[in-house]
Amino acid sequence: MSKKSSFSTAGERLTNGLLKENPTFVLMLGMCPTLAVTTSAINGLGMGLTTTVVLMLSNLIISLLRGIIPNRVRIPAFIVIIASFVTAVQLLLEAYIPSLNEALGMYIPLIVVNCIILGRAESYAYSNPPIPSLFDGIGMGLGFSFALTCIGAVREFLGAGTFFDYPIMPDSYTPITIFILAPGAFFVLAALTAFQNYLKESREKVGKEARHIGSGCSEDCMNCSDKGCSKRFYDTTAVNQGKNDELEFIDMEKGDR
After folding, report:
1. Residue ranges of domains in the chain
2. 15-26 pLDDT, tens digit each
3. Phi (first) and psi of residue 35, to 5 degrees
4. Among 64, 66, 91, 229, which residue carries the largest CB count within 10 Å?
5. Within the chain, where are the H helices?
6. What's the gap between Cα 206 and its chain centre?
């Protein structure tokens, strides 16, 4: 891959996580921290940026080690790498931002098993060069941060009348408490997702493609006709071969009888 094409791919991966494959509003990944920690904008931003740091570093290291990590033990290897960065980030938060660390609580250690990070490691970083993988992690992380901050800001505004802990509503405003409780997270997530779908449909009406969801190679794997593509989420060739071998074995058994 040339230097120019490498940076072009990196830019594509950066915008991809923010728009086409936003992990929260499009792929619906990482719902546990999305619904749990977004009681305020600052909590959503803190959780998103923490995940971004882990995501970009783990993507980079996994991509650099993709020729060394055996395929059979790749998932345990991914978890060890991710857990190392999560531990380092948690220690830094405890030392320098203890209030944020206390607010996020148990959801920082749970980043280790966040499906966004494991999903990008498996579907992209493990089979692509370091620079695009790094930008893929940054793009996905920023998309996650943007989504969590938006959800947290709406919940905080309606539920407390503040924005990043700064009062913006008059004293006569009565906060809608349900929005800072658990049900409020579902209401706001559903509303923002519906708004994004409305924008996509509006773009399609004027002839702009907006529903294309890639899978690490800017192709739609769910509707792809290339069954032997090496960048698919699973090896369809191996699955089909296994089915053929099973049918041949059954035919042999019938012949012996």
Report:
1. 3-205, 225-256
2. 888 877 889 988
3. -85, -25
4. 66
5. 3-18, 31-36, 41-64, 74-96, 98-104, 115-123, 130-160, 182-205, 236-256
6. 29
